[in-house]
Design a protein that fits this description.
By secondary structure, the chain is an alpha+beta fold. The chain has a single domain, classed as Cytidine Deaminase, domain 2 (3-Layer(aba) Sandwich), CATH 3.40.140. Helices cover 20% and strands 36% of the residues. It contains three helices and eight strands. The strands form two sheets. A six-stranded mixed β-sheet has the order 2-1-5-6-7-8, covered by helices on one side. The protein has a two-stranded antiparallel ribbon with strand order 3-4. It is globular and about 35 Å long. 24% of the residues are buried.
Length: 120
Amino acid sequence: MRAALVAHATAALPNEACGLVLFDGDLAVEYVPGRNASPSPYHFELQIDPLTWADLNDRDVTQAVFHSHISSPPRPSRTDVQNIGLWAGQPYLIYTVRTDELAAWRILAGGTIEALPLQG
């Protein structure tokens, strides 16, 4: 799974990559690459094909937002917190290309950020 995230983040340079990581319980089972509809090295706008969205919503999996940071730490930025919207409370994964670090978070309504553990 990590290799797929790293490959997508690297291929999207110099912009941020984004997509969804699907979880069955605590196990990441699939990566669905998205398109950054607003290509930038500083923010992302996740776009997934509507038919893919419909299929994903019919599955019994947890959807986690993934995006990359080019060089800033793998921690939610002010922009990430401000733009959390409907993803508030859901797992939120960030990969930093420069340092090869991956971290998981939960951003709650109101801007509280909680670290989530990652396994293997």
